[in-house]
């Protein structure tokens, strides 16, 4: 009797191409920012910027945050969400915001751990997001004060701006604590395991013969297999016990009439139910 092994986790088939991961991050950033446009300091751009630094390489690290901000800014102003500031103020403030997101990306790149789909990896991402959020808000608050609120009609001091920024920063930290583990778990899983597959799993002998060409995952076993496989294992152990008893002297021989069952008997019984 041959028992086919199974695993509760999908088999790894290689990482998702960088351009596909970048497009997914851009889509999450764009959709999230547009959907939450009217909710101050609740956004998904920071999390995709952090993930770009931790999961991507090369030019894609810079493309993701810049593309998200550029697309949403163009769409936002095209849809009539433009503010009441002068063009030079908008461009200057955009420079502070863009550079802040690039800083978050660089922070994710520097703090990049060994990317595994484990609780520790998600915890590291979430921990990094807190100082990243605070530094982001400090930098953009300084830009807002330098370009807008330090001038009439506001004429505020920088400490006043920081004092008013506190509740918005607390909301921003709460946003990061929600979105970073949520989207972080999703993208790290894709980074480690790749795309899911519905193709049937090959036999272990087939995998050995085509190890280099294997491109799919083994699906999880169906519920009936959880019952069939242990029963087959029990039958295998009983058969081994019978073989061991068969080697004893004739006077101690113990018979097990009718004990043997055809291979796959219990599996067929449960799978046909």
If you had to describe this structure to a student in words, what would you say it looks like?
- By secondary structure, the chain is mostly helical.
- The protein has two domains: 18-193; 223-271.
- Helix content is 64%, strand content 0%.
- It has helices at 18-35, 45-55, 60-78, 87-110, 119-149, 158-193, 204-209, 223-246, 265-271.
- Helix 1 packs antiparallel against helix 2 (45-55), helix 4 (87-110) packs antiparallel against helix 5 (119-149) and helix 5 (119-149) runs antiparallel to helix 6 (158-193).
- Residues 1-13, 207-229, 251-256 and 265-273 have low confidence and may be disordered.
List keywords for this structure.
disordered C terminus, 64% helix, 9 helices, mainly alpha, 2 domains, 0% strand, disordered N terminus
User: How would you describe the oligomerization state of the chains in this entry?
Assistant: single chain
Number of discrete domains: 2
- Tell me the radius of gyration: 29 Å
- Spans with pLDDT under 50 lasting ≥5 residues? 1-13, 207-229, 251-256, 265-273
What distance separates the N and C termini? 22 Å
Helix-strand topology string: HHHHHHHHH
**Beta strand %:** under 5%
Compile the SSE list and pairings.
Blueprint: H1 18-35, H2 45-55, H3 60-78, H4 87-110, H5 119-149, H6 158-193, H7 204-209, H8 223-246, H9 265-271
Helix pairs in contact: 1-2, 1-3, 2-3, 2-4, 2-6, 3-4, 4-5, 5-6, 8-9
Summarize the structure.
This protein has 273 residues and is mostly helical. 64% of the residues lie in helices and 0% in strands. It has 9 helices and no strands.
């Amino acid at each position: 009797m041959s028992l086919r092994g199974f695993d509760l986790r999908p088999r790894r088939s290689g990482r998702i191409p960088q351009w596909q991961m970048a497009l997914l991050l851009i889509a999450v950033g764009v959709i999230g920012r547009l959907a939450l446009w009217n909710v101050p300091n609740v956004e998904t751009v920071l999390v995709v910027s952090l993930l770009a630094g931790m999961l991507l390489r090369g030019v894609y690290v810079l493309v993701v945050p810049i593309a998200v901000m550029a697309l949403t800014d163009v769409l936002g102003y095209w849809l009539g969400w433009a503010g009441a500031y002068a063009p030079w103020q908008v461009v200057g403030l955009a420079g502070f915001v863009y550079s802040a997101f690039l800083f978050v990306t660089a922070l994710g790149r520097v703090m990049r751990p060994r990317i595994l789909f484990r609780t520790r990896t998600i915890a590291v991402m979430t921990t990094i997001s807190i100082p990243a959020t605070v530094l982001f808000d400090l930098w953009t608050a300084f830009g807002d004060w330098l370009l807008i609120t330090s001038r009439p009609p506001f004429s505020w001091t920088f400490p006043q701006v920081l004092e008013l920024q506190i509740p918005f920063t607390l909301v921003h930290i709460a946003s990061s604590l929600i979105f970073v583990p949520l989207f972080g778990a999703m993208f790290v899983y894709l980074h480690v395991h790749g795309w899911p597959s519905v193709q049937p799993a090959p036999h272990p002998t087939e995998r050995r013969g085509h190890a280099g060409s294997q491109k799919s995952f083994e699906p999880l076993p169906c519920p009936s297999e959880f019952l069939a496989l242990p029963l087959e294992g029990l039958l295998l152990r009983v058969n081994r016990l019978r073989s061991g008893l068969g080697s004893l002297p004739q006077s101690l021989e113990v018979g097990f009439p009718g004990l043997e069952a055809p291979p796959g008997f219990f599996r067929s019984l449960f799978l046909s139910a």
